[in-house]
Design goal:
alpha/beta; 4-stranded antiparallel β-sheet; 7 helices; 24% strand; binds adenosine-5'-triphosphate; binds magnesium ion
Length: 283
């Protein structure tokens, strides 16, 4: 089942011995059931912090997150998480037994969880590596096992933090294609963190562009290109331009001509946070 995610007026402040860091300021957005959201922004803009709050690993210092209408208070575990790090699998378990892990915790009977694990390994095209251990697999294969593990648990939402960032460009493209396929077959609600514009345009229904210091949502861009997407098409390139125009000074030379845009964009205020929160989430 795919769940709706609501993020309303969420901030997060880290407190260290020396100082406080406002990592996320007043972020509001929603992800509809089965929608694929990419969160895009420069290093340090608070993407991982948002991810950790969605997953329930960190509690917002202000605002609220709801998944499927229920408040994320750290006890809500109806989500699968895939991290950037290859070392997220249990090294002493085979690929199949890694995928089975969440089902074991839930007490699913052995034969049933074995079937489910094989089904999801097949989905990420790794059924012939089911009995291999993580150290016998490449980085990309390990990430696919991690995706299969997150999906096998059948979560309401799938959260992915730059899962392919450490892969070479060719493998990354192949992984993106596979992920787009898997998503079309499973229709999970996905939040996918990236700092790669092309990746966001390839995968997302909606892109949240973030700005740093403090991390805040700058724009929300809806992409309605047909799937599978063609990175060489005019519409794809235009979508990249549209996103770059919201990313700030680094992309100023790529600012598109002022022609009417085919993408529904909501510009976010970049000034100080408003005193009162707008009603109903996204202004
Ligand atoms: N544990 C922590 N203690 C203090 N400050 C932190 C901590 N983790 C992150 N920060 C700060 O919060 C801000 C946001 O960090 P975060 O990791 O969310 O960024 P990010 O957008 O994921 O960056 P990257 O693209 O590099 O992964 C940064 O300024 C960072 O220094
Ligand atoms: Mg990060």
């Amino acid at each position: 089942m795919a769940e709706r995610i609501e993020v309303e007026g969420v901030s997060y402040e880290y407190q260290t011995d020396q100082r406080r860091v406002l990592a996320v300021r007043d972020a509001s957005f929603t992800v509809e059931p089965s929608e694929f959201l990419c969160v895009l922004g420069p290093s340090g803009c608070g993407k991982t912090t948002i991810m950790n709050m969605l997953a329930g690993f960190l509690e917002p210092t202000a605002g609220e997150i709801r998944i499927g209408g229920r408040k994320q208070d750290g006890r809500l575990i109806d989500r699968g998480v895939v991290f950037q790090d290859f070392a997220q699998l249990f090294p002493w378990r085979t690929a199949r037994r890694n995928v089975e892990f969440g089902l074991e915790v839930r007490g699913v009977p052995r034969a049933e969880r074995r079937d489910a694990a094989m089904r999801f390994l097949k989905l990420v095209r790794l059924e012939s590596f089911a009995e291999s251990f993580p150290h016998q697999l490449s980085g990309g294969m390990q990430q696919r096992v991690a995706i299969a593990r997150a999906l096998a648990y059948n979560p309401g939402v799938l959260l992915m933090d730059e899962p392919f960032a450490a892969l070479d460009a060719m493998t990354r493209e192949e992984m993106q294609r596979q992920l787009a396929d898997v998503w079309q077959q499973t229709r999970k609600t996905v939040v996918y963190i990236t700092h790669n514009v092309t990746e966001a345009v390839y995968l997302a229904d909606k892109v949240l562009v973030m700005a740093a210091h403090p991390g805040s949502v700058r724009a929300e861009i809806r992409l309605e290109l047909p799937r599978p997407r063609d990175p060489l098409s005019d519409a794809f390139v235009e979508a990249q331009r549209e996103i770059l125009s919201h990313l700030g000074p680094h992309s100023s030379e790529l600012e598109p001509e002022r022609t009417p845009s085919p993408f529904a964009t909501t510009r976010r205020p970049t000034g100080p946070a408003p005193q009162t929160k707008p009603e109903g989430g996204i202004p």
